[in-house]
Amino acid sequence: MAYIQQSFSVKFEYRVFFTEKIFDSSNSTFADFLEAQAAEGIRKKLLFIIDEGVTAKHGYLQEQITAYCEQLDNFELVQDIVVVPGEAAKNDLQLFYWLINELEKYAIDRHSYVIGIGGGSVLDLVGYVAAVSHRGVKHIRIPTTVLSQNDSGVGVKNGINYHGKKNFLGSFAPPVAVFNDAFFLTTLHERDWRSGMTEAVKVALIKDAGFFEWMEANATKLSMGDLPAMQQLIYRCAALHMAHIGGAGDPFESGSSRPLDFGHWSAHKLEQLSDFELRHGEAVSIGIALDSVYSFLLGWLSEDELLRIINLLKQLRLPLYHPLLEADEDEDNPGVVAGLEEFREHLGGQLTISLLRAIGRGEEVHVMDTDLLQRAMTMLRDNW
Amino acid sequence: MAYIQQSFSVKFEYRVFFTEKIFDSSNSTFADFLEAQAAEGIRKKLLFIIDEGVTAKHGYLQEQITAYCEQLDNFELVQDIVVVPGEAAKNDLQLFYWLINELEKYAIDRHSYVIGIGGGSVLDLVGYVAAVSHRGVKHIRIPTTVLSQNDSGVGVKNGINYHGKKNFLGSFAPPVAVFNDAFFLTTLHERDWRSGMTEAVKVALIKDAGFFEWMEANATKLSMGDLPAMQQLIYRCAALHMAHIGGAGDPFESGSSRPLDFGHWSAHKLEQLSDFELRHGEAVSIGIALDSVYSFLLGWLSEDELLRIINLLKQLRLPLYHPLLEADEDEDNPGVVAGLEEFREHLGGQLTISLLRAIGRGEEVHVMDTDLLQRAMTMLRDNW
Prior knowledge:
By secondary structure, the first copy, chain A, is of the alpha/beta class. Chain A folds into 2 domains: 15-187, Rossmann fold, CATH 3.40.50.1970; 190-383, Dehydroquinate synthase-like, alpha domain. Helix content of chain A is 44%, strand content 17%. The first copy, chain A, contains 16 helices and 11 strands. In chain A, strands 1, 2, 3, 4, 5, 6 and 9 form a 7-stranded parallel beta sheet that branches. In chain A, helix 8 (198-207) packs across helix 9. The longest helix of chain A is centred in the middle third of the chain and has 21 residues, at 227-247. Chain A starts with a strand and ends with a helix. The relative contact order of chain A is 0.10. The interface between A and B is large, with 72 and 71 residues. Strand 1 of chain A pairs antiparallel with strand 1 (3-19) of chain B.
């Protein structure tokens, strides 16, 4: 049979920088990165899209960025700095087109840079906008929350919700650089500070017992707002996530295995059932607790280890249970268990769920027992 | 300065198969490909999206596909075969969302297959739908026109037009397989048969003088509808395009160099100015003629070679000129020359245009002289 074989590889590289006060005139991290990308004869454009929640707390930011960019030789800020609502950024298709129109208006091309500053939702939206404009313009992420600095912001995914389904529209599109600025963490709402740590608990549980022990030892500091401790947590967590993405052989997730989604199947559904009243990290904390108890009931995890997990989540003042976990199922309003099938569908193929063999060691299953799951929920509700 | 380096490669592989009557029960090409992708324990879904222009001429097709798929062991057709209007498929954002909703309705996941059958516009739309659903579901292309079989359908791009700008929204997302079915060519409108050959003329001019000579020798056959000659043209043209995409080191076009876009800068604009009355291939034929004359006026191309090019286009009954080339420019309605800047913007960075040093040898310039361009247009209008 006649055919032509196509075969090629595309290399993706980017750095995640750790800095503070990135647009302070004395901080050259961002400028150095850009100038290394300069090309003769072109002034490349910079379009900033900033989370309204960030500008509200950092009122000087737009002015500071403008002044900072005036010092750049080969780059120029477009006329406006765009500010977007952070809440529900991923739920509003009109916002997506509004940003697309901004890129069109400022003639952003494939050599320009779209720079997103904000939490995970805004970065996911901006990443998707950049990924599909002109088949992909370069984008830079400046995550401002614990969650986005240690997890979503350093990875390769973007997306928006559609018809209430999380990330139904999106793509895999690595950024060209990420800048984690610790100063933004100092103005976080306490709830965001806390809930951002769940991805660190998660990745430690499936991959790194030593990191889990470090969190146990530093739980008080972490829960009390200690910035140096948080910076360490973020660095280690980001490094583990990036090593998995780059090193596990499937960065764009063509298979069904998704160990980094430990605790997420129920979390996705809980977020949606709560109408996004629950923060992602809070929902994941409940999801971690649920799947840890389930792992214990399955005979995989020792009671001692389960209690250490529960204890760490409590010390970090993260939630373990929510009544919506056991909300009645019906056709119009399916409960959390229905989230299993939605999770399978989003990943595709066979249902694949990570559970725990031990702290630091995840393992996958392809079926979850609904009765055992119900017992795990009851145990969570009644005991902690 | 502290940073974490991310670095990974993603490998893309697919085959372009050449076959006839792909869904005839005796043809196992498509079934063989699918069964090689089967995974234990999953029945993977198949969603077909077909160009209305194809079903109009091949009324048996949906029934044939249904019967064919019933014979597959590990795959199942979803309930409906979706038919989309072919004309202006890329210009209708509502059509995009209608298809997204079809994928949602049939719970198409990342292990399902979305199969597009049609001309380049429909395939570009379907490819974009597949690329952004669940961050990318697998897609298979079955191009039905000369143009899509020898060029767009065998490549890695997709996209739709937005605010009148060609491919403003889209992505790079290789298909998992392409099936070029020669039987579909037999029902093409003569205008589509002819205009599809321009991409072959283009790629021969910039890369393969031998292929150009072969076309000169076979021009009569090609213009008279000889299928075996056309199959040879398509195979050689597809192979040259694929070799460039896979072999030139920049499959996702991160640089500004775009040799395969020879003749395209003015063509994109002409298509738009004509309200897509001009076929893509017709516009490209005019674009090739224009840039060939320009190359001659620049002293790059000999008169003899220019006349061979003009002669081949005429023998293939392709257009060389259109009054819109010289339409008045104004702010609301910019002419073809303004297309230079739009082309630059879509590609990004420095203007990069391929011209001809000789038949079979393209070379890039970064500036075009407007006066010389005007002379080239006049020469085209007055001489041929």
